[in-house]
Task: inverse folding
């Protein structure tokens, strides 16, 4: 039986990414790390628990991708450049096949963004993963949730709703006849990409930003609360993929999926009038489109509108402890 | 029913410690943090899982102390100055009484070391805690595991074995007649203190260091392996408290407890001959004693000796996955 230390050494000590700002990585009491001069450190922590955030029998490579992508997405939402991650892995027994799959998914994404695994902990218990990711951002350039003002325009990157459609297929709540469509939507759920380059491109342009992890309506609420404004969303502006429209031909239902879809990892951001012209140019090199879906107003809350008339849809974001 | 965000806001957003190097703490996608010029960042992650590292019914204030103390102890072992911590808390349901107790223990220790909680995650699932602690260390001054040489002397701070005695009492494996003795040993297990000041004082003096979390024999092995040396320990030099001697009057058994006791959070460090005179002076202001227990030699492994003669005791450190 492999012991704890063997496991860590075998699966986590060897990684292609070797950053110059990591004088000491795994294997000592702490990692030693160097932040570039003039940069602030952006840090975020996310836990994924089997049974709550993923199915225990899920492909471990997908689980790893989801764990790291959701964590990197928080860096993207601040406009930060990813650098390091620590991994706390709790598992019932040292399952080497699971670990091999997990590492494959984890290191593939880490390598893509040049993120080095610098430490962590491996413990016995119910399956769960906690990641703490670190990135850099030039001092004063971070995209927070509190910088938005009434009159700013509301944007989202990419399309919304595909992740929710993929989850419904995964859970067997829905089926589709077209196997290609099924595989695309499942992939959009399992392999959603953090918008790292888009976040960096929006430094100095967006007034506020966050990533959509609990659903647009729920997450946008955090910007509204922190910035002290309300939002008016034109539902017909919401960007839907052709695949979502094929999955859910009833348009209003597709739009409601787009408003509530979690784990999307698209960015929602706000832009002052004078910066609107810069958005498309800034995002051009990131390969990500952005769509204006509404505008901030004085007051509180989110109003959904169509043709200028209020809509009364009931929507809820994802909440782990809600019943 | 409180939702996830309410819980986080209510229990974790308010803390007495407000550091100037934390421009943005809890409540955004990431925390924003500033590392002093000329310093490296030391980072360590520890998970505590109910049923593996603590009893589910344990006092939550003790659990919080243990979680943070074990994490801070890793900073102490590098000679780092603590600064920030992130907390990932997974719990089956939002138990407010448990949270209140946990926060009390957590913030008491955090405040003592001026550590600010800068972020984290609250999720639903089996009870567990993962902390990632951050500290500063002047560039090039970290105490690693790999700097020891043959001929260096082996030291430990404080006394060894009290934590194991307290654990045996807690688990009902042993009893003692004296209630005062019982309460002292339980306290030594529950409230072991990280040797933060001692670690900092040893910068420039110790050649290698680590904290004793899995038992002296097991942990010292990491220094030996990383530094490519062997150790000779004079068991009669091991520092035992009067309480341990009362708990275990049979001397050899008390010494064996001292060699294997985990979660002690004392430091084990090595000192070149020319620095030996500086140890006591350096540690004087930290209020912690240090005891020389042996010397490093060429070769591999640890030899226990008494009066210069080898001993053949069988000892094992703590390993989560061992059977």
Result:
């Amino acid at each position: 039986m492999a012991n704890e230390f063997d496991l860590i050494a075998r699966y986590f000590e060897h990684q292609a990414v070797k950053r110059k700002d990591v004088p000491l990585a795994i294997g000592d009491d702490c990692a030693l790390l160097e932040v570039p001069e003039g940069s602030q450190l952006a840090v975020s922590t996310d836990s994924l628990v089997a049974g709550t955030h993923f199915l225990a029998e899920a492909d471990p490579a997908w689980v790893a991708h989801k764990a790291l992508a959701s964590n990197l997405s928080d860096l993207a939402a601040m406009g930060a450049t990813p650098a390091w991650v620590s991994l706390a892995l709790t598992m019932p027994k040292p399952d080497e096949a699971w670990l091999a799959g997990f590492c494959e998914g984890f290191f593939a994404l880490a390598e893509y963004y040049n993120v080095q695994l610098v430490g962590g902990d491996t413990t016995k218990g119910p399956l769960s993963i906690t990641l703490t990711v670190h990135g850099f951002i030039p001092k004063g350039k971070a995209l927070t949730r509190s910088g938005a003002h009434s009159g700013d325009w509301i944007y989202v990157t990419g399309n919304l709703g595909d992740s929710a459609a993929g989850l419904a297929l995964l859970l067997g709540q829905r089926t589709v006849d077209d196997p290609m469509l099924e595989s695309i939507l499942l992939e959009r759920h399992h392999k959603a990409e953090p918008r790292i380059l888009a976040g960096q491109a929006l430094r100095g342009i967006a007034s506020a930003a966050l990533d959509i992890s609990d659903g647009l309506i729920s997450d946008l609420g955090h910007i509204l609360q922190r910035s002290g404004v309300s939002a008016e969303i034109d539902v017909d502006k919401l960007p839907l993929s052709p695949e979502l429209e094929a999955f859910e031909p009833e348009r209003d239902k597709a739009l409601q999926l787009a408003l509530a879809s979690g784990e999307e990892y698209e960015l929602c951001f706000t832009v002052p009038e004078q910066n609107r012209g810069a958005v498309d140019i800034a995002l051009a090199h990131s390969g990500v489109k952005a769509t204006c879906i509404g505008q901030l107003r004085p007051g509180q809350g989110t109003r959904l509108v169509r043709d200028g008339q209020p809509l009364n849809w009931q929507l809820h974001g994802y909440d782990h402890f809600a019943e």
